[in-house]
Input
Amino acid sequence: MKRFFNSFSMDFLIAFRNKFILISIGLAILYAVLVNWVIPENISLEETSAYFYDNSSSKIFSQILKNSDNEHYFLNSKEELYDTLSKEKNQPGIIFEDSNFRIIAQGYEDEKTLNIIASQIDMIYLNLSDEYIPYETQTILIKGDSKNSLPFNKKMIPILLATDIILLGFMFSAVMLFQEKKEGGIYAYRVSSAGTINYLLSKTFVNSIIGVIFAFIFSFLTLGFTINYFQFFLIVFLATLLMSVLGILIGQFYDSVSNFVYVIMLAAGFIFIPLIPLFSGSQGNILYKLIPSYYILFGVEELITNGRMQNFLEPVLFLFIEIIIIFLITISITKKILIKR
Amino acid sequence: MIEVKNLSHQYPGKNNFAVKNVNFEIKKGEIFGFLGPSGAGKSTVQNLLIGLLKNQTGIIRVDGKDISDLKRDFFERIGVSFELPNLYEKLTGYENLKFFAGLFKKKCENPKIILERVGLGEATNKRASDYSKGMKQRLIFSRSIINDPDILFLDEPLSGLDPSTSKRIKSIIIEKKNAGKTIFLTTHNMFVAEELCDKVAFINDGKIVAMDTPKNLKLKYGSYSVKLEYKKNNKSESEIIFLENSEDKEKLKNIIDNYEIITMHTREATLEEIFIKLTGRGLE
Output
């Protein structure tokens, strides 16, 4: 342990003098400013239409709307309406009763949209009767998932975290390696008795700690005390650790950042892949889960929404197994390429 | 004690052997000089001895144990000084030594005391990137002795140093030898080898061409020479004449007969001259 802490202190000091920590803190503050004050809470990108079910005794509302110029989607039962809403997440539902109506929102709609719908339906009721008709807005949660209720700016937190922490971990560890190759520090290290495992653990832990520092500043400034920080830090630490080990593994085949830039671009593309299931509203299959950014994206989103992760063991185990496998490969390659060459 | 028998090494993809059938022994407390020009195979032998290159053929034994059986603890017992600078440039001289010392299990020397001894006391807190070439060389030497090793591998430890700093480093090397440390000194500086080494080996094209004490090498291969300075066409010229060589004797007679002699000194042959005599090439 003495040797690990010694190497860790040295690598941390070098990372500090390389401004890695300063860059991370600066980015975390910049992202916090973006989330808190620049990115809007609500963003409406498409025109919202609605699904209807007329439960009134006279079915008058369906008659009125069918005679209007606009296209309306009427369904035959409440069940059919709910079923349709669960498939079509972008539209609200409206149930007409004799004396009132209910707007079934799914959680993503902004207040303004719901108010417009309500005022239009108010007009229909007013035309039929001079009495004020109370209406009820009900928010239903599709598949028990409440993530759509997250404001848009908060939705950006896992994306910014996943892409930056992971990419920085990958880049910084490779850059540390290039610096050692250039300065020759690796030649001195390999004639000490400290060994390959100590070398790898030290560098990857330094980058993971930098990732946690970044994540802490960013999350604290945007989410405060609303999430389970133990779960959050562990997921961030493990995902960054995995990417740092990968950075060292791949970095051994390159000598400088200029040669490595194509790998960084590929890695960035790779990291963005789990955004596909995230935006399509699915959980994605096991292949998505193999990508280190997956658990940051989905785990952090769940943390932000619910405060904690229900199934915390799965991401920890998944990432842990991936780290062990990649770490063993990296030890073998490092001994052959970096230490012996 | 270090024992090397029939050591050969061929780099992948190369047709020639970098080191061919090398044999030598270094006793405890001995300074062994490994002399040769660049590319002769000195560094390959050193890398094989310190386990950075895998031994292909031949035997390397340290205190009777085959090097392939030596585990990581072997590195606790050795110190290596490289010719090319390999420091953590973002760290100060003190930090470079302190962190390197922290990689060993054994108790190491105090970095500040060592830096004082090599004349870097005032540059302790200066970053290595701001050191001159000579300062970097001294820092690398300091690092090699931080763990008080039993065996020291020194590759050109005095390269780029001024005479007074060289003297400091030489005195530390001699002190280590007197403390019973075994020293493998790689150099192309014959004066350094002559001054420090108990035994020297000349290596050329991967083969050892001669090995003995500097004194015995001179007795065996050296001959007295005459250094002449004379005037030729109103220009001052100089020449070294080996007296055992009949062609040179004729040359000496010709100069004395035809030109004005300015100075004439008899001198003992240097190791470099012996190396040239044995290999036909210089050391630079």
